[in-house]
C-alpha cells in the first residue's frame, strides 16, 4: 500500500523531495508460529519540508514505524532510506552517527539530561560530534522557542512545557534532515502542548524543517500537513489538511473495525506491545 | 514478610554478590590466619614434645639477645657423667647445638637456607628422641666427617662423598658428607649438620670437653618433674637451668612463636583492613538497595507493614548475606591457610597440609566476624528503610538521600574532626614518646572518622576542582561525567571512602618510612667515617678468621672492630634496663664521627668505662663519673664508670636503647666468647677505594655471608630493611584497593541502572557506545581520584605527626615521598578505569529502545 504524500497540497510550498522512504518495511517480533507482525510490509514516503503525523490505536505499530525510520530499531524485512542513504543494513556505529548528525528527536518525557543546563542540552548532539554549532542558526532557534532567558537553567528548574521546548530546540539545533517527535505533548497540559505544537509547525513553515510526529491526540494531529493512519501494522488511510474533528471521526472507525474483525479485510493481528 | 525478604534478596543477588565478596575476604583472612597458626603450632608442639629429652640441663641465661653477639653459652661436658649418677637417671648425653653456622660448597656457595632460617651444627648422639634418623651412609667418625639433612642436600644437590666447608665461630673446617639424615617429623626450615661429639665440641665450640646442654632420660617409673628435682638437687639449682620435656617444648615453641606471631599479626592486619573497607562497601550497597526500593518499601508500609517489620526485613537480608559470606569465607580461609603452608614449604618449613588444624574457635570466629560485619554495616541503612513513609509509594520518588541536607554531617564531621585535629596537634607538640604515640593513635582514628562523615560534603568542592579540566578535554562527555559524580555526593563520598582508608594508611606509612630512611641516611652521613664496612646483611656475627684475613688484606690501613653484647644496667634512679651495648676497638674516631656532649672517645673506650646517650643519661640521673653496676651474660657483672655522653640521632633502636658502648677490651673481659659483628675499614695511604674494595671482596670470597659495603651500600642495606615494612603496607593497600574497586563497581552499576533512560536518550540522539563507555570511565576515575586525594591529604597529615613521634626517638629528618604520591594518584585513576570496565560495558550493551521505555 503506497502512500504518495508528495502531491501538492493547495496552499503549501511545493515539496522539494523525499526526506525518508520505506519500502516493504516489515517488523516481526519472535519467530515461527508465535511471530507477531508489528509492521506488515509498509511503504511510506516522508516529504521534505512537511509536518507529517502518524496516528493509530495503541498497538497499531506507529512507534515501531518511527523507530525503524529513525534507525533506532532493526527491520525484519524491507528497506529504509534517509535521503539517499539506505539505512537498513548500516552497522550500529554508522546508525549512531546518522542519528547524531542527520536526525532530531523529541520524546514524550525524559528528554533532557538532568546534569546539563538548557543550552548544553540543546547543543549536546553537536558537542558529542565535536562540531561547533552554527551560532546564527542556534540563536534563531533559541529565539523562536523563546528560551533566551532559560539557557542557564537545569531541567529540574524548568516547567514541563519549557523542557519540551528545550528538547525541540535540541532537535532543531543541528538542522537535521528529519525530526521525529514521539508523543511530544503526551505529558503536557493543553496550553503547553499547544505551544509545543505551534513551535513544530513554525519549524516546518519558517525554518523549513521536516517533522514526523507520532501521536494519539487528534488535536495534535490537526497541526500537521498530513496524517497517516496505522492499523495492525499497515497504513490504512491518510488525511491531508486534517482537522481535529475529522481525525477523531476517522479514529472512531478503528474501534468499529476492532469490534468486528474481518470487516476491513485486514487480519486481526495481536498487539505488539 | 519473610517470603518478601527472600524474594528481594534473590532479586538483588548480583549487587549483594559484591558485598558478599567483601565479607568473604575479611572472613577468609581471619580464619586463614587462625587455621595457619593453629596448624603450625600443633605441628611444632608435636615436634618439640617428641624430641625434647625428659629433662634438659642448660647454661643459665638471664639476658636475652636483641642483637646477635655470636656467643654460645656452654657447660662442661663432664656434667653428663655427674648426672648419670643421679638416682632415677637412665641416660644422659652431652649435647652440642650451635646456631648461625655458614656452610659452603666447593664453589663457595652457601648450602644452608638463605631465607633467615639458621644452619645448626649438632653432636651426633642418636637416640629415640632424635628429630632425624640416618637414612643413607654411616655415622660421622672423627674430624672431617658430617651428616647433612636430606632437604638441604636435595635443595643444593649435595651427595654423600661431597666436601663442604663449615664456617663455625672458632674457625672454618672442611668435612666430607658421609651420610644423609631425614626428619622424623617436621623440619622448621633450618639446615642441620651432625658431627661426632668430640668434633662438635672442638670445632663448633672451640673447646673440647664443653657442651651446650645435657639431655637426661628418666629411668622407668620416674616422672619428669621428679627427675628435674633430683638432677637440680645434685647439681645445685642455681647453677644451671633445668627444664622438663614439657617446659623445654614450651620454650622452643616460644622461640619459634615470635616468627609465627608476625605472620599471624600480619594476617590479622589484612583481616582488619578487609573488615574496615568491607563495612563501607556493605553500608553503601544496602543504602543503595534501599534507595532503589523506596517505593516498594513505601508500598509495604502503605499496606500496613510496621516500621519494625521493614527494618527486620532489611536486617534479615543482611544476615543472609553474612551467613553466605561467612561460609564462603571459611572455605576461602582454609584455602588461604593451605596456600600459606605451601609458601612455608618453599621457605623450607615443611608442614603437612593434610594435618590442618581447625579448632572450634575458627568457625565461630568466621561467623562472628561475617555476621557481625554485615549486621553492623546494614543497621543504619535498615533504620533508614524503616523511616520510609507510606507516601513514598505514591510520589514519583527521586532517589532517596539526594536531597536530604548534609547539615548533620557537617556538624558531626566538624566536631569529630576538631577533636582529631586537637589530638594530632597535641601529638605534634608532645615531648614524651608514649603520650605522643597515644595521641597519634587517637588523632588518626578521629580524623579518619571525621573524613568519612564529612566526605560527602567534600565531594562538591573537590570534584569541581578535580574535574575542572574535563569539559575542556572531553567536551560534553567530560562535563556529564563530572556532574554525574557530583549528583549524589553521599554515594560518591561513601564509595570513595573505601579507597581513602587504604590510601591514607599508605600515605602516612610512606611518609614515616621515608622520614626514617632520610634520618638514617643523615645519621650515616654524619657518623660513618670509614671507607668500608664489612658485615653480614642480617646483623649476624662472623668468626675471628674473617677479621684476621681482612686485616692481612693488601691495602687495608685501619680495621676497627665492633661487637655487641646484651647487658643489664642498674641506673641511679633505680631502673634496671636490659639493652644491648656495643664494644669498639681503639682509633674509633678515625672511622666514626661521634658527637660527644661530654668526654670523648678516649674516655668512652677506656678500660672500665662506658658511654651513653645524653637523653638516656638525663632521664635516669646518670652523670659523667657515675659508676653503674652492669650485668653481662653468663652471670658476670662489673661496675663501669660513665666516661662520656653522646648526642646521637636514632639512638633508640629495637632492644638497643641508651646508646651504650665501651671499649672492645671491656666487652671481651666481661662477655668473652663473642664474635665480631662489623669491621670498619680504612684504606692504607696510597690505596684507592676501588682497589681496596676489590681486594676485600677477594678476601671474603670464601665467606658468602659477609659483604663489603661503602657508605652508599650501607645506606641501601638500611633502606632495604625499612622497605620490608613498606612492602607489607603496600600489600595491605592492595587488598584495600581490591575491595574498594568492588565498591566502585557496585556504585557505578547501580548508577547505570538508575540512569537507564538517560543513557537510552543519549544513545538515541547519537552518543556512540565508545563515548558512553568513556563517560562512565571518567566518572569512575574522578571518584577514585577523589578518594585518593582525600586519602593522601589525610595520610600526609598522619605521616607528619608520625614523624613527630619518630623525631622524639631521634629520627628528626622529615621527608615526603612525592614520587609515591604521584604514583598513588595515577594508580587511583587506573583503579577507576578498571572499576568502570564492567558497568561501562553493561551500559553500552543496553538496548536503546528498551532503555527509553524504561520506567
UniProtKB/TrEMBL annotation, chain A:
Residues 20-257 form the ABC transporter domain. It holds the Pfam family ABC_tran. The keyword Cell inner membrane does not apply. Keywords: ATP-binding, Nucleotide-binding, Transport. GO terms for molecular function: ATP binding. SMART domains: AAA (SM00382). Signal peptide: none annotated. InterPro entries: AAA+_ATPase (IPR003593), ABC_transporter-like_ATP-bd (IPR003439), ABC_transpr_LolD-like (IPR015854), MacB-like_ATP-bd (IPR017911), P-loop_NTPase (IPR027417). This is ABC transporter ATP-binding protein.
Amino acid at each position: 500500500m503506497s502512500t504518495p504524500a508528495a502531491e501538492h497540497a493547495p496552499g503549501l510550498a511545493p515539496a522539494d523531495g523525499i526526506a525518508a522512504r520505506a519500502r516493504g518495511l516489515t517488523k516481526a517480533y519472535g519467530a515461527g508460529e508465535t511471530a507477531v507482525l508489528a509492521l506488515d510490509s509498509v511503504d511510506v514516503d516522508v516529504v521534505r519540508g512537511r509536518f507529517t503525523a502518524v496516528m493509530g490505536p495503541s498497538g497499531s505499530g506507529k512507534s515501531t514505524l518511527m523507530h525503524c525510520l529513525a534507525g533506532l530499531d532493526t527491520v525484519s524485512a524491507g528497506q529504509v532510506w534517509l535521503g539517499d542513504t539506505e539505512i537498513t543494513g548500516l552497522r550500529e556505529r554508522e546508525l549512531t552517527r546518522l542519528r547524531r548528525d542527520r536526525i532530531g528527536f523529541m520524546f514524550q518525557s525524559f528528554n533532557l539530561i538532568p546534569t546539563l543546563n538548557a543550552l548544553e542540552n540543546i547543543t549536546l548532539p553537536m558537542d558529542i560530534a565535536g562540531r561547533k554549532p552554527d551560532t546564527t542558526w542556534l540563536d534563531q532557534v533559541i529565539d523562536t522557542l523563546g528560551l533566551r532567558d532559560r539557557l542557564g537553567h537545569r531541567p529540574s528548574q524548568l516547567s514541563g512545557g519549557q523542557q519540551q521546548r528545550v528538547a525541540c530546540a535540541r532537535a532543531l539545533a543541528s538542522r537535521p534532515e528529519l525530526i521525529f517527535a514521539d508523543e511530544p505533548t503526551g505529558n503536557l497540559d493543553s496550553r503547553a502542548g499547544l505551544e509545543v505544537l505551534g513551535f513544530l509547525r513554525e519549524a516546518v513553515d519558517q525554518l523549513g524543517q521536516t517533522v514526523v510526529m507520532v501521536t494519539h491526540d487528534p488535536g495534535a494531529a490537526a497541526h500537521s500537513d498530513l496524517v497517516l493512519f496505522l492499523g495492525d501494522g499497515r497504513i490504512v488511510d491518510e488525511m491531508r489538511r486534517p482537522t481535529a474533528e475529522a481525525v477523531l471521526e476517522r479514529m472512531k472507525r478503528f474501534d468499529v473495525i476492532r469490534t468486528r474483525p474481518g470487516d476491513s479485510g485486514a487480519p486481526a493481528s495481536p498487539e505488539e506491545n | 514478610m519473610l517470603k518478601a525478604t527472600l524474594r528481594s534478596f534473590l532479586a538483588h543477588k548480583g549487587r549483594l554478590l559484591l558485598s558478599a565478596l567483601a565479607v568473604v575476604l575479611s572472613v577468609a583472612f581471619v580464619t586463614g590466619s587462625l587455621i595457619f597458626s593453629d596448624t603450625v603450632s600443633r605441628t611444632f608442639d608435636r615436634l618439640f614434645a617428641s624430641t625434647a629429652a625428659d629433662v634438659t640441663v642448660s647454661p643459665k641465661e638471664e639476658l636475652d639477645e636483641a642483637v646477635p653477639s655470636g656467643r654460645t653459652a656452654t657447660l662442661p661436658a663432664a656434667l653428663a657423667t655427674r648426672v648419670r649418677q643421679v638416682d632415677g637417671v637412665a641416660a644422659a648425653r652431652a649435647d652440642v647445638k650451635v646456631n648461625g653456622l655458614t656452610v659452603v660448597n666447593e664453589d663457595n656457595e652457601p648450602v644452608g637456607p638463605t631465607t633467615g632460617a639458621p644452619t645448626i651444627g649438632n653432636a651426633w648422639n642418636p637416640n629415640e628422641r632424635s628429630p632425624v634418623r640416618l637414612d643413607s651412609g654411616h655415622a660421622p667418625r672423627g674430624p672431617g666427617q658430617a651428616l647433612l639433612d636430606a632437604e638441604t642436600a636435595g635443595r643444593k644437590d649435595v651427595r654423600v662423598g661431597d666436601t663442604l666447608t663449615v664456617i663455625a665461630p672458632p674457625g672454618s673446617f672442611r668435612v666430607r658428607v658421609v651420610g644423609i639424615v631425614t626428619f622424623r617429623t617436621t623440619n622448621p626450615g633450618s639446615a642441620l649438620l651432625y658431627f661426632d661429639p668430640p668434633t662438635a665440641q672442638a670445632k663448633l665450640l672451640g673447646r673440647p670437653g664443653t657442651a651446650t646442654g645435657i639431655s637426661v632420660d628418666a629411668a622407668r617409673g620416674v616422672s619428669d618433674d621428679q627427675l628435674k628435682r633430683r638432677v637440680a638437687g645434685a647439681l645445685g639449682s642455681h647453677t644451671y637451668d633445668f627444664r622438663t620435656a614439657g617446659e623445654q617444648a614450651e620454650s622452643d615453641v616460644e622461640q619459634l612463636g615470635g616468627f609465627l606471631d608476625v605472620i599471624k599479626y600480619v594476617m590479622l592486619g589484612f583481616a582488619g583492613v578487609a573488615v574496615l573497607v568491607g563495612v563501607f562497601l556493605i553500608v553503601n550497597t544496602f543504602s543503595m538497595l534501599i534507595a532503589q526500593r523506596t517505593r516498594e518499601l513505601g508500598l509495604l508500609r502503605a499496606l500496613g507493614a510496621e516500621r519494625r517489620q521493614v527494618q527486620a526485613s532489611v536486617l534479615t537480608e543482611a544476615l543472609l548475606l553474612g551467613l553466605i559470606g561467612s561460609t564462603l569465607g571459611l572455605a576461602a580461609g582454609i584455602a588461604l591457610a593451605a596456600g600459606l603452608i605451601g609458601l612455608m614449604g618453599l621457605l623450607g618449613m615443611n608442614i603437612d597440609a593434610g594435618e590442618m588444624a581447625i579448632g572450634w574457635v575458627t568457625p565461630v570466629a568466621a561467623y562472628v566476624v561475617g555476621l557481625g560485619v554485615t549486621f553492623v554495616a546494614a543497621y543504619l541503612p535498615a533504620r533508614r528503610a524503616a523511616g520510609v513513609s507510606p507516601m513514598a509509594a505514591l510520589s514519583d520518588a527521586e532517589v532517596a538521600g539526594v536531597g536530604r541536607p548534609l547539615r548533620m554531617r557537617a556538624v558531626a564531621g566538624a566536631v569529630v574532626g576538631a577533636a582529631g585535629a586537637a589530638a594530632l596537634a597535641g601529638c605534634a607538640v608532645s615531648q614524651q614518646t608514649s603520650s605522643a604515640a597515644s595521641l597519634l593513635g587517637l588523632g588518626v582514628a578521629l580524623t579518619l572518622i571525621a573524613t568519612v562523615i564529612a566526605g560527602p560534603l567534600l565531594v562538591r568542592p573537590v570534584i569541581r576542582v578535580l574535574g575542572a579540566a574535563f569539559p575542556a578535554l572531553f567536551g560534553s562527555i567530560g562535563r556529564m561525567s563530572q556532574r554525574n559524580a557530583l549528583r549524589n555526593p553521599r554515594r560518591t563520598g561513601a564509595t570513595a571512602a573505601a579507597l581513602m582508608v587504604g590510601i591514607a594508611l599508605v600515605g602516612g606509612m610512606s611518609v614515616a618510612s621515608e622520614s626514617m630512611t632520610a634520618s638514617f641516611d643523615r645519621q650515616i652521613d654524619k657518623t660513618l667515617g670509614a671507607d668500608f664496612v664489612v658485615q653480614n646483611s642480617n646483623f649476624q656475627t662472623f668468626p675471628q678468621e674473617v677479621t684476621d684475613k681482612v686485616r692481612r688484606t693488601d691495602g687495608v690501613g685501619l680495621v676497627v672492630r665492633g661487637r655487641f653484647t646484651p647487658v643489664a644496667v642498674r641506673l641511679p634512679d633505680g631502673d634496671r634496663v636490659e639493652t644491648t651495648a656495643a664494644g669498639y676497638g681503639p682509633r674509633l674516631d678515625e672511622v666514626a664521627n661521634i658527637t660527644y656532649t661530654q668526654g670523648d672517645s678516649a674516655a668512652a673506650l677506656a678500660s672500665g668505662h662506658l658511654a651513653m646517650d645524653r637523653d638516656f643519661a638525663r632521664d635516669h640521673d646518670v652523670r659523667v663519673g657515675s659508676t653503674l653496676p652492669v650485668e653481662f651474660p653468663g652471670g658476670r657483672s662489673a661496675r663501669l664508670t660513665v666516661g662520656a655522653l653522646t648526642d646521637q640521632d636514632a639512638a633508640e633502636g629495637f632492644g638497643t636503647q641508651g646508646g651504650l658502648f665501651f671499649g672492645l677490651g671491656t666487652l671481651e673481659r666481661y662477655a668473652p666468647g663473642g664474635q665480631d659483628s662489623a669491621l670498619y675499614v680504612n684504606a692504607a695511604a696510597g690505596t684507592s677505594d676501588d682497589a681496596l674494595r676489590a681486594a676485600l671482596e677477594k678476601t671474603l670470597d670464601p665467606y658468602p655471608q659477609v659483604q663489603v659495603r661503602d657508605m652508599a651500600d650501607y645506606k641501601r642495606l638500611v633502606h632495604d630493611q625499612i622497605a620490608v615494612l613498606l612492602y607489607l603496607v603496600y600489600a595491605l593497600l592492595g587488598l584495600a584497593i581490591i575491595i574498594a574497586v568492588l565498591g566502585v563497581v557496585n556504585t557505578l552499576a547501580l548508577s547505570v541502572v538508575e540512569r537507564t533512560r538517560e543513557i537510552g536518550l543519549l544513545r538515541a540522539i547519537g552518543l556512540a557506545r565508545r563515548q558512553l563507555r568513556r563517560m562512565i570511565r571518567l566518572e569512575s576515575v574522578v571518584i577514585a581520584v577523589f578518594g585518593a586525594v582525600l586519602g593522601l591529604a589525610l595520610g600526609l597529615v598522619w605521616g607528619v605527626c608520625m614523624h613527630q613521634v619518630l623525631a622524639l626517638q631521634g629520627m628528626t629528618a622529615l621527608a615526603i615521598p612525592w614520587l609515591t604520591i604521584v604514583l598513588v594518584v595515577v594508580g587511583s585513576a587506573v583503579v577507576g578505569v578498571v572499576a568502570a570496565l564492567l558497568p561501562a560495558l553493561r551500559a553500552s550493551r543496553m538496548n536503546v529502545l528498551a532503555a527509553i521505555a524504561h520506567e
